[in-house]
Model the fold of this input.
Amino acid sequence: MLAAKLAVARAARVASRRLRRGGTTVPGRLLLRLDPRAIAALAPRLGAGSIVISATNGKTTTAAMLAGILEREGVRTIHNHTGSNMSWGVATAMLDTRLGGEELGLFEVDEAWLPAVARELRPRVFVLSNLFRDQLDRYGELAVLAERWQKMAGEHSGTARFVLNADDPLVADLGRGRPLVAYFGVEDDSLALPELQHAADSKRCGRCGHPYAYESVYLAHLGRYSCPGCQQRRPEPGIVAERVVLHGMAGSDLRIRTPSETVDLRLPLPGLYNVYNALAAAAAAHALGTPLADVATGLEGTRAAFGRVETLQVSGRPVSIMLVKNPAGANEVLRTLALEDGQLDLWVALNDRTADGRDVSWVWDADFEGLADRIGRVTCSGTRAEEMALRMKYAGVEGPIVVERDLERSLDRALAAGDGRALYALPTYTALLELRDLLADRGVAPRWSA
Amino acid sequence: MTPTLRVCALYPELMNIYADRGNLQVLRARCAWRGLGFELRGSTLGDDLDPHAHDLFYIGGGQDRDQIAVAEDMVGTKRDGLHAAADRDAVILAVCGGYQLLGRSYQLGEQTIPGIGLIGLTTVREPGPRLIGNCAIESEIAGGSRVIAGFENHGGRTYLDSGERPLGRVLSGHGNNGRDGGEGVRRGNVVGTYLHGPLLPKNVWLADRLVEAALGVELQPLDDGLEEAAHRSARRAAGV
Done:
């Protein structure tokens, strides 16, 4: 019976690919309609079990980094690498499983979908990195999501290994008092911010409600914290990133330390947020038994996932594409841009489709103020272009603010206005998908394939 | 002497979930562009509140857990101050969770979260989904009828007493409770609403009316081309 359902869903995937759709949604949805328990039914075909990666920010990149490390080790994976991360995205990827297969399932999973998907998949390893304020219209409040993750951690405690970010209090709390937990974290005070960023959310202790005291804040509410009320502290991480030097868009140097060894490496992706992604991937690979030197080699060979800091040549100008979708992520992109030289030329595309979140309030929580005097020109696009432009005006941008809702026209206007300098493109999720198709049509980026 | 808008933000580090900061940024920028002074103070858990020291009091929305702590503190330390501020016609702008706290109480299952009882309204968490989406209302707050656009996201249903008037009539969206067609509340210079997005960037004309009410001045127009385009964009999202 399962075989017949798989055949139908696989046929749908072939058809969907012919229609130049990515083919990552329809087949999985169809399969789950034919058999709502298909993920559970297919899970035993993953001979090496499966590993799930979830977070508000960095899922796709962390999964790509881990896949890169494991491929070099000769581990074959079944991976939803296009970032289709709801249950149907996982189901679509599982169409590639076969009876008696020896692959490892490597799935990034949407944070709201994770408890349900994990119940079906019964993963060996959970890699959980961060929970930030994101798309409140879709995910609801952070505290509610964290409670659902806490319940999930209870359901899998003792049977799965948890690789957790010690620096995020909400994520760290998932491992307290539980077995098979490995923590990772950053320890480098040269990276500390002067204060908690405005959009930081989990500022109060989950146990006693007292505000956390931060020794160092690294990113949003990630840092070294303790609770003056109940004395709960950040867990001591076993895998640490230290000696981090951020070189702007060029990437970062860092050292990864485990209790027994250290390794220095150059990460080709920029920003502290990618240091966290690399550290999560390293901790996961370490938990699977990969030697640290191989972890470093794998990370050094990482290529950006599409739209996660990728630089392309378009109409004679380097265009760096960086997805922005919530305040914490946008702040890290802005922090990375601040390390670039001179006046910056920006193109920002704010869409409000379902996958972006219909509520565009979040742009007021992102700290554009900090970069405003460096923005020489900004072109605003997308379904809510005018509101993005208004945000730029009130952030204090004094250079030209151009509004053009149509994505293609706005990109052409932005490209034509520059003098060969870099253009920094900051699209929300669905704007990124549109941009990808547009650049593929022009032959400057490969067509996305599933 | 140049008038200064003295703003007090209540619980700014807790009640800020829907980008409430944007409301304050709009007030600040528009004061600066007009040569008016702008002063921002915060009043958080445990702080008292001087009703005479501020012209405009602002409270935004928070996560449920934080809102419970805020409600207890507000009733304990700020209720009298806010009543006195309303009596002297200071502007009080309360958005989302803050709006709910202006009333008598918020019934959340078994739990009753107290309000400061400034306005005759109660909020109840009824069965059914959260009321989420783009929203546009028609309001008489500026004399003639004008549209206020924003985004609402609330589990609570708010019901006004018969003597209270809503801020506006729902053109698109859910409003106070999804039933009676009213959205928000307005009594004198006290304004409560579920609309964020944030509210004032999407409706700068409303920001100006509130500043005028707070300072008793008449403001000169600014070059609001981009502001009006953003307002139309928010209306379009709500289908109005």
The helical segments of chain B are 21-33, 64-87, 97-101, 199-202, 204-215, 225-237.
